[in-house]
Amino acid sequence: MTTPRRLLLVNGPNLNLLGTRQPEIYGRDTLADVERLTADAAGRHGIEVRAVQSNHEGVLIDAIHAARLDCAGIVINAGGLTHTSVALRDALASVDLPVAEVHISNIKEREEFRHFSFIEDVAVVHVVGEGVPGYARAVDLLVEVITGSADG
Ligand code: CA2
């Protein structure tokens, strides 16, 4: 089977509020800006993006399961579920797709409860603390993994 030219972008709980509060931590870009920037980055590689954001863990898990059928990889900012959800981690591990973990803020330099990520060791790409532009870098690095080249 040929590799699908599509990525799944997953944004977890509360990321629908981006750009509305805590700009000192998360900046002023909105979720729509994040989804556009990610689609533009993928588009430069001839790849499309299916974006999902939900405040409900099961919706995210269902989207990850569905990606198995028609996506080549997953870019995920799981929000607070990063630090709590074995179920989300199990979903990512079960689909056998390369995963890029993104965090807008540097979780390693914030409160101690944010230091641990259940997703970290099921992801092959990590972009942390680079703000919203980090989503574009995650796409570039994930495409390298998928195509096995530095210019995929
Ligand atoms: O830095 C990140 O990207 C986080 O994944 C964002 C999560 C946080 O729980 C993680 O520890 C780190 C929180 C997203 C909440 O986003 C908001 C945006 C604007 C206003 C309020 C919340």
TrEMBL record:
Where in the chain is the site Transition state stabilizer?
Answer: R21
Q: Which Pfam families match?
A: DHquinase_II
Reaction equation(s) it catalyzes: 3-dehydroquinate = 3-dehydroshikimate + H2O
A GO BP entry is: chorismate biosynthetic process
Pathway given for this chain reads:
Metabolic intermediate biosynthesis; chorismate biosynthesis; chorismate from D-erythrose 4-phosphate and phosphoenolpyruvate: step 3/7
Cite the InterPro entries for this sequence: DHquinase_II, DHquinase_II_CS, DHquinase_II_sf
Q: Where does substrate bind?
A: N77, H83, D90, I104, S105, R114
**Per the UniProt record, which EC number(s) apply here?**
4.2.1.10
Q: Which GO terms describe its molecular function?
A: 3-dehydroquinate dehydratase activity
Keyword set, alphabetical order: Amino-acid biosynthesis, Aromatic amino acid biosynthesis, Lyase
> Which residue positions are annotated as catalytic?
Y26 (proton acceptor), H103 (proton donor)
Q: What does this protein do?
A: Catalyzes a trans-dehydration via an enolate intermediate.
Q: Which family does it belong to?
A: Belongs to the type-II 3-dehydroquinase family.
Q: How does it assemble?
A: Homododecamer.
Name this polypeptide is given: 3-dehydroquinate dehydratase
Organism, scientific name? Microbacterium enclense
